[in-house]
Amino acid sequence: MSQSPSDIVRIATLRTDLDARMTGLRENASTVARSRAHVEAALSGEASIYGINTGFGALAHKRIAPDRLAQLQKNLLLSHACGTGDPLPMPITRLMLQLKIHALGLGQSGISQPVFEQLLALDAAGIVPYVPSRGSVGASGDLAPLAHMSLPLIGAGQCWNAAGSGPEPASEALARAGLQPVELAAKDGLALINGTQMMAACGAFVLHRAIALLRNADILGAMSLEALQGSARPFDARIHAVRPHPGQVAVAANIRRLLRDSEILESHRDCGKVQDPYSLRCIPQVHGASRDALAHCAEVVERELNSVTDNPLVFDDGDIVSGGNFHGQPLALVLDYAAIALAELASISERRTYLLLAGHDGLPTLLMSDTGINSGFMIPQYTAAALVSENKVLAHPASVDSIPTSLGQEDHVSMGSIGALKLLQVLENVERVLAVELLTAAQALDFRDPLKPGLGVRRAHAAVRDAIGHAEQDYEVGADIERCAALLRDQRLLDALGEDLVLD
Questions:
Q1: Whether residue 16 has pLDDT greater than 70
Q2: DSSP string of 243-301, one letter each residue
Q3: Whole-model pTM over 0.85
Q4: Catalytically active residues, by annotation
Q5: What is the pLDDT of residues 348-358, one digit of tens each?
Q6: DSSP string of 46-61?
Q7: Cβ atoms 232, 261 nearer than 8 A
Q8: Are 179 and 126 in contact (CB under 8 A)?
Q9: Range in 8-22, 173-187, 413-427 the model is least confident about
Q10: What is the DSSP letter of 231?
Q11: Which domains does the chain have, with CATH numbers?
Q12: What is the distance between the alpha carbons of residues 32 and 36, in angstroms, rounded to a whole number?
């Protein structure tokens, strides 16, 4: 069954409130202490245990002397912090940090108490590491990003400055918060950098934003349908009852709500038009398929957020077992799937924008009365087309690729981190394509005055006009596209619908 919007939004807060979870971890660290005790007991024995008293990856066969274990863990952070490229956005890095705390707090990683408490202190002080976005292949976890995220614990690396405008030395951020660097103990470095927290944070961030986009896309579809004097018959509940994909049924119901009490629909009810183009007629089928796809992605990401993805794992009976929970394949596949699902929302939206400009059903060509001297809304459609085309490239799945690392020890990798970064770009592109449709649909609806659209469309149109005026002549339209994108991101269209018109 398809998840509801509130279910998907919960992903960004780990099903229960993440801040409450952090408070609980500060108050009760018994699970961390119990797990650490098992690591300490293992260190007193003779057995070689991966990552605790051995090297890493291709060096797993090398036993490390007890007096060098702390240096081993410090070296692990330093050697793996070799990411490159633009930084991850601050909100994603903060979520990475919190997800790492959450995973370690489940008590199966053997992290030492001082290091765990230092993580909690960073989060409490609002210190956000500065993490380069490139360098992970999504297999032994997000090694490079998590190493950069962890360096500030020991006073190394960089953090976002207080203004959030760029990096500063982590030592300065710690000093400002009254914190001292912490010493790593055996297993600490490995527990910090093994895991899928970068991929998972990106997935949660995008899915949190995507649910608003899904409902906004339904609003835009209804606005364009009204502006183009399309038919409401394709949204008849009986049609969707015989093909009951949950997303499709929900979208059709949303469109019916939005069109309620439409004077425009009544004005052409008997016009004789037989069928609308697919971008209008098939809104439930296309939007609904993206909804169902993203609901599946949400289920996988939410499960991952509440999983332990470290290696080796420490169990309550004292066993310390090496495995592969760090491998990002479950996320890699759904991050690619999410990119495809979001890209399709933009693809059908751009087609509706094209229809709005074509001069059908009494609308002026290019949505301005005096064209020739004015280009009207010709070029915003170019922008939408460019972004849709870019998304086609970005939607190529990263997860179908693999390249061996660690001298062949890690011979299959997920590339989930690459999928995560592509997904972030797809999200931004889709928001702007939908913004172009919002701008043009609002302009087109102005030409239907004095006939009023359905109640939901009417309220959404009013919200646009509160922020952006009707255009009589050419102007710098790019700024209005960004204003429309902000309307979508801030959920102002959804809020404008009112409590009596809540969308699924």
A1: no
A2: S--HHHHHHHHHHHHHTTT-HHHHHTTTS------HHHHTHHHHHHHHHHHHHHHHHHH
A3: yes
A4: 50
A5: 999 999 999 99
A6: S---TTTSB--GGGTT
A7: no
A8: no
A9: 8-22
A10: -
A11: 5-196 (1.10.275.10), 202-496 (1.20.200.10)
A12: 6
